[in-house]
Amino acid sequence: MTRFLIRWLVMTIAVAVTVLILPGMHVIGDPPIFGFAAFALFMALINASIKPIVHLLALPFSILSLGLVALIINWLFMRLASWLAIGIFGVGVDVGGFWWSVFASIIIAIVSSIAASITGE
User: Fold this and answer.
1) What is the CA radius of gyration of the chain?
2) Which residues, by range, are in coiled-coil regions (predicted)?
3) In whole angstroms, what separates CA 99 from the centre of its chain?
4) Which residue in 53, 61, 100, 118 has the most C-beta neighbors within 10 A?
């Protein structure tokens, strides 16, 4: 349980940095930390549960499309996390579009790696 909480904290920090950097992502809710945390919670749950299965099933299409399918899957999961966070908690992060989610994925991966190395995860 502690490991999940640390990963959730790392994801929350990564999402906060991403929203502050990218103009295509907006936090919904007050105070903003609740929006970051709700979105990060659903992103962490999706990344841990259904994302590996979907990526495995879509692997042949991803290879044929040179990775475009993987980008679309990431975009869809970001939209799903946003929809769930806003729908259930009333706070979250709104992802502006496909390319904003691509840029967000890159920034979240970099910041998560840095934060995870600091925390020892």
Assistant:
1) 14
2) none
3) 14
4) 100
Q: Which residue has the tokens 């936090």?
A: 27
Residue 61 has a pLDDT of 93
* Beta strand extents in the chain (DSSP E only): 25-28, 92-95
**Angle, vertex CA 106, rays to CA 34 and CA 61, nearest 5:** 110
Each residue's pLDDT tens digit, 64-87: 999 899 999 999 999 999 999 999
Decide: residue 52, CB within 10 A, 0-12 exposed, 13-18 middle, 19+ buried: exposed
State residue 40's pLDDT score: 95
**One-letter amino acid identity for 25?**
M
CA–CA separation, 50 vs 69, rounded Å? 16
Instruction: State the average pLDDT over residues 46-52.
Output: 91
Q: Report the mean per-residue pLDDT for the chain.
A: 92
Q: How many CB atoms within 10 Å of residue 107?
A: 18
Give Cβ neighbours of residue 73 (< 8 Å, ≥ 6 apart): 51, 54, 55, 58
Closest alpha carbon to 27 in 17, 35, 37: 35
